[in-house]
Specification:
Elements: E1 2-7, H1 15-22, E2 28-31, E3 40-44, E4 47-51, E5 63-66, E6 71-72, H2 74-86, E7 93-96, E8 100-101, H3 104-117, H4 131-139, H5 146-149, H6 152-173, H7 184-200, E9 204-205, H8 207-216, E10 221-224, H9 249-253, H10 259-264, E11 266-272, E12 275-277, E13 286-288, H11 297-300, H12 306-316, E14 328-330, E15 332-333, H13 334-344, E16 348-352, E17 362-371, E18 374-376, H14 383-388, E19 390-397, H15 404-410, H16 417-430, E20 434-438, E21 446-448
Helix pairs in contact: 3-4, 6-7
The chain binds guanosine-5'-diphosphate, 6-O-phosphoryl inosine monophosphate (IMO) and magnesium ion.
Residues 11-12, 38-40, 321 line the site of magnesium ion.
């Protein structure tokens, strides 16, 4: 049986924490897309781990797999593994030989393109990790894969083909002078060494076969999505997206197991009880903007609900795990979640951060949109139309702050009644059961209603 964890919104919904809560029953935790743009937090007995490429099961000592759909920066992967070792963990990470490698020139090109776009409203606000340029090369059939690092002749041949193109792109198209990041000999030496370390530690696998064999042996597999549905390259608000498929279909293409395997298991949508967004793009229920990220911020300023947005941002610690940027904040958006529920086929939901909203008199939800005089219940397919949508809000009475640790221990009925009304509205609208409710960042601060592995 598999359990797939998917971000239902814009990333940072608390996926890492939920992987950790249910991960006890899993034997293997596999990432299927994305790279070190992800920042997943696990809090165990007050100790916080921020994981980027290493699957979140590492905190519980589970085997981690980085599937073929991931993009791997070996430098940051080894740094992360070494740092976790220093903190007393022993991450066992296997990397798909079919996964693509992020090279230094990808990061440089990511930065150049953002810089070029910075004067216009098409800037994405990427994490600068080279994610987009690496997936471009994958699709352009000029990428370098993890398996290529293990064969120096192949590595050299591929670098000799691709690096001059990248150099020309930087220098001739963008007019930027480049350095070592575009030097074939230097890249060859460095990446050959990464290949050696991968090999010495027996870290590479054919991911699909590896996972299928473990499942044949009766082991439980969890798929850990990174990012979220609304920044999915296909189902998100293009072009303000990441370059992979965080949606559940990605768990099949990104691991080498079939859609039947993924669909035959549980697919749990992770929902933040409000919205946050790092980077640009529309956000109809936005409360207060962030300079440089919120479209129109320069003309309109922070917006009328800035105080409320700041309150939620501070209560929730809403600053990017990877980049430290303040996150934009908004009310929960139901059209977004209806879209997400359809695209992923959620069998259950985990709603996090209800503790953050406690103490407010009123909690609002964008129930539907008004678009050109019509009421809409899901998000339109073009980002331009989405940015025209005006939310129709539904108002809920706020709930008090309580001893959330005690609530988690007692169970669902101990959640303040007004918060339960809010949760039940979400569950009814999406016709999906709530499996867990996050009431704090710690492992023990989750109300587990149903264990998907049970
Ligand atoms: P991910 O990328 O989806 O794994 O989420 P992040 O780790 O980037 O961001 C979620 C943040 O919220 C982290 O700091 C978590 O420790 C924290 N968190 C997760 N669930 C809850 C919750 O229910 N309540 C509170 N207050 N914090 C939470
Ligand atoms: P986790 O897994 C939130 C956003 C970036 C940017 C856009 C594209 O922690 O939920 P990229 O570097 O991927 O090309 O950037 O996607 N983004 C995330 N936002 N959580 C993430 O990951 C994100 N990963 C990328 O801010 O807007
Ligand atoms: Mg995150």
């Amino acid at each position: 049986m598999t359990v797939t964890i998917v971000g239902s919104q814009l990333g940072d919904e608390g996926k890492g924490g939920i992987v950790d809560v249910w991960g006890d029953a899993a034997d293997v935790v596999a990432r299927y897309q994305g790279g070190d743009n992800a920042g997943h937090t696990v809090v165990e007995d007050g100790t916080e781990y921020k994981l980027s490429l290493v699957p979140s099961g590492a905190v519980r000592g589970k085997v981690g797999v980085l599937g073929n759909g991931c993009v791997i920066n070996p430098e940051t992967l080894f740094e992360e593994i070494d740092a976790l070792r220093e903190r007393g963990l022993d991450p066992d990470v296997r990397v798909a030989r079919r996964a693509h490698v992020i090279l230094p020139y990808h990061r440089v090109l990511d930065g150049i393109e953002e810089e070029v776009k910075s004067d216009s409203d098409v800037k994405v606000g990427t994490t600068g990790r080279g994610i987009g340029p690496t997936y471009e090369d994958k699709m352009g059939r000029r990428g370098i894969r993890v398996g290529d690092l293990l064969d120096p002749d192949v590595l050299r041949e591929k670098l000799e083909y691709v690096v001059p193109q990248k150099r020309a792109l930087a220098e001739d198209v963008f007019g930027v002078e480049v350095g070592e990041e575009f030097d074939i000999a230097a890249l060859y030496d460095q990446y050959k060494r990464y290949g050696e370390r991968l090999e010495e530690n027996d870290m590479t696998v054919a991911a699909g076969e590896f996972l299928a064999d473990r499942m044949d042996d009766g082991e439980e597999v969890m798929f850990e999505g990174a990012q979220g549905t609304i920044i999915d390259i296909d189902h998100g608000n293009y072009p303000y997206v990441t370059s992979s498929n965080p949606t559940a279909g990605g768990a099949a293409t990104g691991t080498g197991l079939s859609p039947g395997v993924v669909g035959g298991g549980e697919i749990v949508g992770i929902v933040k009880a409000y919205l946050t967004r790092v980077g640009s793009g529309p956000l109809p229920t936005e409360l207060g903007g962030v300079e440089g990220d919120t479209p129109g911020y320069d003309e309109q300023g922070a917006g009328e609900n800035e105080e409320l947005a700041t309150y939620i941002r501070e209560e929730g610690g809403e600053y990017g795990t990877v980049t430290g940027r303040p996150r934009r904040v908004g009310w929960l958006d139901m059209p977004m979640l209806r879209h997400s529920t359809r695209a992923n086929g959620f069998t259950g939901l985990a709603v996090n951060h209800i503790d953050v909203l406690s103490g407010l008199d009123e909690v609002k939800v964008g129930h539907s949109y008004d678009l050109r005089g019509e009421e809409r219940f899901t998000i339109p397919a073009t980002t331009e139309m989405w940015s025209e949508c005006e939310p129709n809000f539904k108002s809920f009475e706020g709930w008090e702050s309580v001893d959330w640790g005690e609530v988690a221990e007692t169970g669902y009925d101990a959640i303040p009644a007004n918060a339960r009304t809010y949760l039940e509205y979400v569950s009814d609208e999406l016709d999906t059961d709530i499996y867990a409710v996050g009431v704090g960042p710690g492992r023990e601060e989750t109300v587990v209603v149903e264990d998907p592995f049970a």
